[in-house]
Amino acid sequence: MKQIFSGVYKKGNNLYTKGKNLEEWNPYKSKPAAAILNGLQNFLVKKGQKILYLGAAHGTTISHFSNIVGEKGIIYGVEVSDKIILKLIDKVRKKKNIVPILEDARFPENYGWIGKVDLVYEDIAQRDQVQILKRNKVFLKEKGIILIALKAKAIDSVREVKEIYREVIEELSKDFEIIETIDLEPYEHDHLFIVGRMK
Ligand SMILES: C[S@@+](CC[C@H](N)C(=O)[O-])C[C@H]1O[C@@H](n2cnc3c(N)ncnc32)[C@H](O)[C@@H]1O
Prior knowledge:
It is a single chain. This protein is an alpha/beta fold. The protein has one domain (about 25-199): Rossmann fold (3-Layer(aba) Sandwich), CATH 3.40.50. The chain is built from six helices and eleven strands. S-adenosylmethionine binds near residues 106, 123, 124 and 126.
């Protein structure tokens, strides 16, 4: 077993993070795991970070982020669906560093109390996912990091995926230095994982 990033381990082609025990990180269920197995060089989630997580869903990926940031870190998980957040709360009950927030990420003013964060992660399959991310940049510390699991087909189900990727990168480049992008095939179709830093 080899540590390949802060708190991320690899054995053969399997990834793990470590909570109380080693937990397998499935690339078919979690996009950052897919990005890492596809060769991502800059996975910038680290021990002790404060993270804003948009689109927390049932808690699969946020649980692994929780293992990585450890007890000195904290993750605010925003989820808009009241049914889904109940499952999230149930899953992460034992993780002391996750704060589930039932809110629409389009309205960051509703959770402004979280203060500044080191990193914003977005995995929201909505047409306006780029605009939502940009609204949430108010939380980033100077030179703060963004990670996005971009779903092209949610933006436009007809147009060429590569054209959508190009436009999104151009739009994000106004505010962020794009550090790396990586396609998530074969784990997820039509998804691009993007790593950036506030300019
Ligand atoms: C693709 S799933 C996220 C999967 C999750 N990140 C994981 O890897 O475990 C997208 C989630 O975003 C939520 N969502 C969609 N629009 C949202 C919004 N405007 N604000 C907050 N959450 C939203 C959905 O309810 C859904 O649970």
